[in-house]
Design brief:
With about 450 residues, chain A is α/β, with parallel strands linked by helices. Chain A has helices at about 10-20, 60-75, 115-125, 140-150, 180-195, 210-225, 245-250, 265-275, 300-305, 325-340, 345-365, 370-375, 425-430, and strands spanning about 45-50, 100-110, 130-135, 155-160, 175, 200-210, 230-235, 260, 285, 290, 290-295, 315, 380, 390, 395-400, 400-405, 415-425. The relative contact order of chain A is 0.15. Chain C has a two-stranded antiparallel ribbon. A two-stranded antiparallel sheet of chain C has the order 3-4. Classes of the chains: A alpha/beta (about 450), B mainly alpha (about 400), C mainly alpha (about 350).
């Protein structure tokens, strides 16, 4: 393929040398095309693309991601207190940018729509010469942009995406996910739920009617059934639903004593609020207290549900109240800069940016194939989740998963969740060919040139 | 070509604009502060012409007959799904994909139109909206096995693709036209300026010109006259003993096929489909494009489409650090003040700017951007008052 | 049986929100002939009136509590609402707790004001313009309004709970002789239903039994003649717009405890409310209310597990499917008048 497009910024220099008088050269004749990969950074800067939702329901989450990226860029360029660069076990990063090039960035709005996200990512690649795209707040967007980056030949470092598909049936060689997934949520929650609520429970699932909902329902169902729970019913709810009353009202009649809300974002806030409104948590069924579970918690969104989250179990990728050195360093520098603690979305994005930079340093190149090689099978620590492995088979990070509970007596508006258990990585690890992840193939890395 | 001199001139102007778009859209040198406003990169140029096609087609229905469809995005989406399945099963060549997208969208619009056209006015609008929303909701959820649901569909190297040979390991499937990669670009560097000529863009532009030419022919044909008659007074038309339904249905299907063509081209340029493409806001967007540009005019919808897509892609990317660069030459106090004033309108605030511009255009330019153009034109032509006669490109079809 | 009663209850409750929004929309359309795409935004602004009032009530000064630490290890800053200083903590808590009902008083003048400003400043100039222009300008306005709210309040939903007295749910089943816990319904949703019934009744009574209402109805039927009789119909129409805005706003205020409000809640309701209005029949107030309840109940039935097992995905499309069937069998919706919005 002769798509040897180069960074536009880099071209200015070439252009200036090659033909101030209008002398033109076809792309394939340009000397720097020999870099061998798309958007090879020219001069002394490298451009990264931060593609986050800035409008639509996840705009606040996107804003937090963007803050994290700005912080990461500051740290990579040697500014600030260095954050997690000090606790990261790999010491390749020097604080002088990446491979000596100052980090610059462009931003875009995914609108949480796959079309808009791809348009935005393409403009970063084609217009701004971005060599890596990162960010996002939903699996639909992550899968769409990941496929785009594979086609175009740049690295994609996924932001918040929890569906099994991102590193399952839709995995790509150029894409990497640090965030955990539905399977891990189920595997981490099951033992904690067994301890708290016993092994004789009847669960009723409400599931968001799209891919992420399906994988989450499947994961939670299979891991809770494995420990003896019975699934009474699983009802799908439309994504656009705002009032869940007609789905929640029949729950008590079904004889279930646990309600699992496989919802995220606005759906989660509304369904949880509605469930608490119906007084489900004050009821006794089968002689047991009725309980509600939210498999994927987001603190930013939990805030929207207010006091309704109290005492409700869920899982999360990371929480600012962790006390390991990495988390403390990150919370310290984020909190000092912005005045409030970071969200899990901010954390995963910050870590992804650092991991990418570190991989470039270790590979000695920005070439996507080099970066892929450096990240595959990479083991590290000091990034807030304990010892972590970027598995080569599916580009998924394997690390401890947090099981959290809505806090009964929050001391501030950020203090909504408390960590119940840190489920060790062994418990959430699965085989690469696990049936919940079947049907995909990484392919090979594409450097785009 | 069967066109009047005025129409022919208009077609030539549009053709010239299309051919030189890489220059026209990239007026600022690379690296300068204004380069942010350059739109001459392949993806956006492709989108501009594709949504131009979408709006041209919508205008054939709305501009001529006055029937306001609120569900045209469904045809675009259906066309896209048909095209991507062609690419997954048959070949990555864009021709079969585009042909099938037009056909499938035509069939679907025949069904929807046949039912919806039993009613008129807002009842018709709600019927089309209902069909589109059902398509969206089903594609996002229960039809996931066919549509990919939330994560959409992309070609994978594991797809069967019976006409193409097996890909070499490490290759990703790429949309092409008999071997010409849609992503292939040629860059021309002139001093500080960089101009990108993209194969996919020119394929789309040629198709857009054909679509535009056909729409002129439709506007000027007896069939077009009949559609205008429907708009001006359907009752009177019916009293003359004519059944207007076949005409409106034909217009509906034609505009549905245009939408399908746009959907197929979207896939040809960027091989992926997501269900959001069919959401009601997408249907609303093409209505906005058409009215904003000037409904019933030939060139208006294209202008409207360009306006909205430009905003969506350019203004949303301006962030605070870019603002800081722009105003860096000012004294600190004024710089901060300017940034505070401008910041709410750019980046994540691009919707706000777009909303304000909608309102301004509708309030002050009832005929859309085309009327704006006319007013400017009149300013320069004031000396020739005889030129008041409405010409082909500006006559609203009322 | 119990399941059916439960879903009828649900449907009535859902329907009351639809009916209230559709009522306001129809008022504006019926009196002024304007298609108002910003109506959802008015509903949303109403909801944010409740948010704003609870923000005002909890306006705080900070006190540094040396005994506790914040997340950075600095002494914790505790916010103490001014209202505690004025009324003492106990009364202050009660007032904050009742913020949502109190917002009704706050929202009425605000919404009427916004309605007047909108009508005088913008809508007035669009009476004679085509419906397409009205749609475009009000849609633009809706975007601007929601972006302004987003700028000040962020994109995330903001919890605004009902007063303590209305939390929890009421057991209808026990009352009707079913097993306990089979038919339960939250108190606040019952309040919402009653509130909607009162507002709908009040609007109808106002139009039916007052001279003002009579003139407005006459104006709806034949604006020109009423004007010729020397009646200043414009002024009355402005007032009607204010009333419609207030109805939408109040629907929003009372909705906040049911679902935490966010800036795009208006857009979420917009399409649905148009479907309701059209199914009811353009220009018919009673049609709008009837269609609101009808669609609410049907939507509730479609979400029953047993229905979904036989027809997967029916909950996704029920509203639109019903709209299509009704419009095909009854050309002008349930109670529409001939010749309205048919061109």
């Amino acid at each position: 393929m002769s798509n040897s497009k180069l960074t536009r910024r880099g071209l200015i220099k070439t252009g200036a040398v090659a033909g101030a008088a209008g002398l033109t050269l076809p792309t394939y004749l340009r000397a720097d095309a020999h870099a061998g990969y798309l958007n090879a950074p020219q001069g002394d800067t490298v451009t990264l693309g931060f593609n986050v939702p800035q409008s639509g329901p996840y705009a606040d989450e996107g804003a937090d991601e963007l803050r994290a990226y700005e912080l990461a860029v500051e740290h990579l360029n040697g500014g600030g207190d260095g954050g997690m660069m000090n606790t990261f076990t790999s010491k390749a990063l020097q604080g002088n940018g990446i491979l000596g090039k100052k980090v610059e960035y462009v931003t875009g709005d995914t609108q949480t729509k796959s079309d808009a996200a791809r348009a935005s990512a393409k403009s970063m690649i084609e217009k701004d010469g971005a060599v890596m795209i990162t960010g996002g707040s939903s699996s639909g967007v992550a899968v769409a942009v990941q496929a785009l980056c594979q086609e175009a030949g740049v690295i994609f470092m996924a932001g918040l995406t929890h569906s099994n598909d991102t590193t399952g049936k839709d995995k790509r060689a150029n894409g990497f996910r640090h965030f955990f997934n539905s399977y891990m949520s189920g595997a981490a929650l099951a033992p904690v739920l067994k301890n708290a609520y016993g092994s004789d429970r009847k669960a009723y699932h409400l599931t968001a009617d799209y891919n992420w909902g399906y994988t989450t329902e499947e994961a939670v169902k299979s891991s809770t059934e494995a420990m003896g729970w019975e699934t009474v019913n699983a009802v799908k709810t439309p994504l656009t639903q705002t009032d869940f009353s007609s789905y929640i009202a029949p729950v008590l009649q079904s004889g279930a004593d646990v309600l699992v809300l496989n919802h995220y974002g606005g759906n989660m806030v509304n369904s949880l609020t509605n469930a608490v409104q119906f007084g489900l948590r004050d009821k006794q069924v089968n002689g047991k207290n009725f309980e509600i579970i939210v498999p994927l918690y987001s603190r930013l969104m939990a805030k929207g549900a207010g006091a309704n989250v109290k005492g409700i179990f869920g899982s999360t990728n990371w929480h600012w109240s962790l006390t390991d050195e990495g988390s403390k360093a990150f919370v310290q520098s984020f909190g000092t800069k912005y005045g409030f603690p970071p969200s899990q979305a901010a954390h995963t994005c910050y870590v992804q940016a650092l991991l990418y930079a570190d991989a470039c340093e270790r590979a000695g190149t920005f070439n996507p194939c080099g970066v892929v090689e450096a990240l595959e099978g990479f083991e590290f620590d000091g990034m807030g989740n304990g010892k972590t492995l970027y598995r080569a088979d599916d580009h998924q990070c394997f690390k401890d998963v947090l099981v959290v509970k809505g806090k009964e007596n929050p001391t501030s508006e950020f203090d909504l969740l408390e960590i119940v258990e840190v489920t060790p990585v062994e418990q959430v690890t699965y085989a690469p060919d696990h049936p919940q992840f079947a049907g995909g193939s990484l392919g090979t890395c594409n450097p785009g040139a | 070509m069967g066109l009047t001199k005025k129409d022919f001139t208009l077609l030539i102007i549009v053709a010239i604009l299309c051919v030189f778009a890489p220059f026209i859209l990239n007026p600022f040198p690379e690296g300068s502060a204004m380069a942010q406003f350059n739109a001459g990169y392949p993806d956006l140029m492709q989108r501009l012409v594709i949504f131009g096609i979408f709006a041209i087609g919508f205008n054939i229905l709305f501009g001529l007959t006055g029937y306001l469809s609120f569900g045209h995005a469904a045809f675009l989406g259906v066309g896209s799904y048909a095209a991507i399945w062609m690419m997954k099963l048959l070949t990555m060549n864009v021709i079969p994909a585009i042909v099938i997208s037009v056909l499938v969208a035509g069939l679907f619009s025949l069904l929807v139109g046949w039912i919806s056209l039993r009613r008129s006015g807002i009842y018709f609008s709600i019927l089309t909206l209902a069909f589109a929303q059902m398509s969206y909701a089903l594609a996002y959820s229960v039809l996931t096995p066919i549509t990919g649901g939330e994560t959409g569909l992309q070609p994978k190297y594991t797809d069967p693709r019976i006409l193409d040979g097996a890909l070499e390991p490490g290759q990703t499937p790429r949309a092409n036209l008999f071997g010409l990669d849609m992503k292939q670009s040629f860059e021309l560097t002139m001093g500080d300026w960089v101009f990108t000529f993209n194969a996919g863009y020119y394929v789309a532009a040629v198709i857009m010109l054909v679509a535009f030419y056909l729409s002129i022919r439709i506007f000027r044909s007896p069939f077009g006259m009949m559609l205008r008659a429907v708009k001006s007074n359907q009752q009177r038309l019916n009293y003359t003993g004519l059944n207007s339904k076949p005409y409106t249905l034909a217009a509906f299907v034609i505009s549905g096929m245009y939408a399908g063509l746009a959907g197929g081209l979207l896939v040809a340029m960027d091989t992926q489909v997501g269900a959001e493409r069919m959401f009601w806001t997408a249907s609303g967007e093409v209505v906005l494009m058409t009215i904003l540009g000037g409904a019933g005019t030939l060139i208006g919808p294209v202008l409207g489409a360009g306006f909205i897509k430009y905003f969506e892609n350019i203004v949303s990317k301006i962030n605070k650090s870019i603002l800081e660069q722009w105003f860096a030459f000012m004294p600190d106090g004024i710089e901060d003040l300017l940034i505070t004033l401008v910041y709410p309108f750019i980046g994540k605030g691009w919707h706000l700017t777009l909303g304000i511009l909608f309102m301004l255009v509708v309030i002050f330019l009832p005929g859309g951007l085309v009327e704006g153009g006319q007013r400017v034109g009149r300013l320069f032509k004031r000396k020739k008052p005889a030129d008041d006669k409405p010409d082909g490109k500006t006559t609203p079809a009322e | 049986m119990d399941a059916i009663i439960l879903q009828i209850l649900n449907g009535l409750d859902k329907g009351s929100a639809y009916a209230l929004i559709a009522l306001g929309l129809t008022l504006i359309f019926g009196t002024l002939g304007v298609v108002n795409f910003a109506h959802g935004a008015l509903f949303m602004i109403g909801a944010f009136c409740a948010v704003t009032l609870s923000r005002i009530l909890t306006l705080s000064h900070t006190v540094i509590d040396e005994t506790q630490k914040d997340f950075l290890g600095n002494p914790l800053k505790v916010d103490v609402p001014y209202i505690y200083d004025i009324f003492g903590q106990a009364t202050g808590d009660v007032i904050i707790d009742w913020a949502v009902p109190l917002s009704i008083l706050f929202a009425i003048p605000v919404m009427v004001g916004i309605g007047f400003a909108m009508e005088r400043g913008l809508i007035k100039h669009f009476y004679k313009r085509p419906h397409a222009d009205q749609i475009l300008v009000t849609f633009g306005l809706a975007i601007v309004l929601q972006e302004i709210i987003k700028y000040f309040y962020g994109a995330n939903p903001i919890p605004t709970p009902a007063p303590d007295a209305f939390r929890g749910s009421f057991d209808f089943g026990a009352m009707l002789g079913f097993d306990p816990n089979t038919i339960i319904y939250p108190y606040w949703r019952l309040v919402y239903f009653a509130f909607a019934a009162v507002i709908i009744g009040a609007v109808f009574a106002f139009l039916q039994f007052t001279t003002f209402g009579m003139v407005v109805r006459a104006g709806m039927a034949d604006r020109e003649t009423v004007g010729l009789l020397g009646i200043n119909i414009d002024k009355r129409f402005t007032i009607m717009f204010g009333i419609a805005a207030a109805v939408a706003g109040l629907a929003g205020v009372m909705y906040t405890p049911i679902n935490s409000p966010n800036y795009h809640m208006g857009m979420d309701f917009l399409v649905l409310s148009f479907v309701v209005v059209v199914v009811g029949g353009m220009g018919s107030l009673s049609g709008a209310v009837l269609a609101g309840f009808l669609l609410g109940i049907l939507e509730s039935f479609a979400s029953m597990a047993i229905v979904l097992e036989t027809l997967p995905g029916i909950n996704q499309i029920i509203i639109y499917l019903v709209a299509i069937i009704i419009l095909l069998t009854r050309p002008r919706g349930l109670m529409g008048r001939k010749g309205v919005m048919e061109e």
